[in-house]
Specification:
Helix content is 82%, strand content 0%. The chain is an all-alpha fold.
Length: 440
């Protein structure tokens, strides 16, 4: 990637978007295979381990994504030494995080499983699965870093091959090993497939143009700064957990299991929309940091314009898709009850315009993150993905089940509008003001 030129939008957007879709499929393989091979209680046991998987995701993003972004900033400044230092330090941090988390999982395995599955009907199954998956963090942080690094540096072929191989290997081995040795086999297949995918991404480093020289570089103060910079984005996974927990409890209390099923469809589409917007935000991360590294206001203007245009286009497209597919999506989520499916479809129609605001929220948050307005980033993402959907869902849920869907839709809309009011009228700044970076 020639750092004299502006970062190309389409390859990074398509790479990140398709990568996210394939990653979602890859993470669902275990659940699909378990659901087909085993009874419902075993399926439930696997799902009960999900909080530990989400925590791994949080740690992996915290350790690696900001490091990959800052490597692009150093590339924009043509600072090869700094690129190598950041690359080496991120690799070391990923290794430390993976080892520490794995040790915690190993030492406290029974207690951790009992905390989420303290029921004789699921405990042993959850324990079998977790006894293998507790070693997953050893690879997960490295894979998350290489996901970003290879994509940012233009390794699209390695990127696609790695993800497709992960899905194929995980699907085939999960079925084979799961039928032979049970849940431990399903977990083992996940680790083997992740190792294969990571190996393919690492091949990208063999090219001296793309690889960076590894050196022992470890600056604790800089590590804390990188972690602080990456915290808001990594916290998305925690915000989503909070939102799901609060909305499910509100719905279960007021409308029972059928209501939870209907609202879960909307929550899944909400999350999927938010994850799909990563394609645009990944381009934004690369282009904004490249512009800062170049110290170029012209390049930054181009990056902002391109990002906003793409966010609006993708938001409108997703709005149309969700609106048109609202009648069939409940069936796709296996909602059999006609009344529940109808309620879910109605909520999806109401939710569909929020897709535009979700895309705008994501790119606005990432702009603030990498121009170092971290409180704004954290507050905006927290309001859009957790606090406001739950708050509005609770308020409107007192009226009807459909009201919870209205609340979910209003969350991201209100979040971005409140941020606009704060920035424009209180701080008296442009929404995408980068003057703090002092670019020429």
């Amino acid at each position: 990637m020639d750092n004299k030129k502006d970062i190309k939008f389409f390859p990074i957007f398509m790479g990140a978007t398709l990568g996210v879709i394939l990653e979602i499929i890859a993470t669902l393989v275990d659940e699909v295979v378990v659901g087909m091979l085993f009874a419902d209680d075993i399926f439930a046991a696997v799902n009960l381990i999900t909080p530990y998987t989400l925590f791994e995701t949080f740690i992996a993003y915290l350790a690696s994504t900001a490091g990959a972004a800052l490597i692009m900033r150093a590339q924009g400044a043509r600072d090869q030494k700094k690129m190598s230092e950041l690359f080496s330090q991120t690799v070391i941090v990923c290794g430390i995080c993976g080892i520490v988390l794995t040790l915690l999982y190993v030492v406290f395995t029974p207690q951790l499983v009992r905390f989420v599955a303290d029921d004789p009907s699921v405990y042993n199954y959850a324990l079998d699965y977790f006894e293998i998956m507790r070693f997953y963090p050893l690879l997960d942080a490295f894979d998350t870093f290489m996901f970003a690094y290879v994509l940012y540096r233009g390794g699209y072929i390695n990127f696609y091959i790695a993800i497709v191989c992960r899905i194929v290997i995980n699907t085939s081995l999960s079925w084979l090993l799961g039928s032979k040795i049970g849940l431990k086999g399903v977990g083992l297949a996940s680790i083997i497939s992740l190792l294969a995918a990571l190996s393919i991404k690492l091949v990208f480093l063999l090219n001296t143009k793309h690889g960076l020289k590894f050196k022992w570089y470890f600056n604790p103060r800089e590590i804390l700064e990188v972690a602080k910079l990456g915290l808001p984005e990594s916290a998305i996974s925690l915000f989503v957990v909070i939102m799901e927990f609060l909305l499910n409890n509100i719905t279960l209390t007021g409308f029972g299991a059928a209501g939870v099923a209907a609202v879960s469809v909307v929550i899944n589409i909400f999350e999927f929309t938010f994850y799909l917007s990563e394609g645009i935000s990944e381009y934004e991360i690369v282009s904004v940091n490249d512009s800062i590294g170049k110290n170029s206001a012209k390049s930054m203007d181009h990056a902002i314009k391109q990002t906003l245009r793409a966010a609006l286009i993708e938001g409108v497209v997703l709005f149309g898709i969700i609106f048109l597919a609202s009648g069939v999506l409940p069936e796709a989520f296996d909602i059999d009850n006609a009344k529940t499916a109808s309620q879910a479809a109605t909520m999806l129609v109401i939710f569909s315009p929020a897709a535009i605001f979700i895309c705008l929220t994501r790119v606005t948050a990432m702009f603030y993150q990498y121009t170092r307005r971290l409180p704004r980033t954290f507050i905006l993402l927290g309001m859009a993905t957790a606090l406001l959907p739950a708050l509005f869902g609770m308020l409107f849920g007192k009226i009807s089940l459909i009201g919870i869907g209205v609340g979910i839709a209003l969350g991201p809309i209100a979040a971005i509008l409140l941020m606009y009011v704060y920035v424009h009228f209180i701080k008296k700044e442009k929404m995408f003001d980068y003057s703090i970076m002092h670019l020429n």
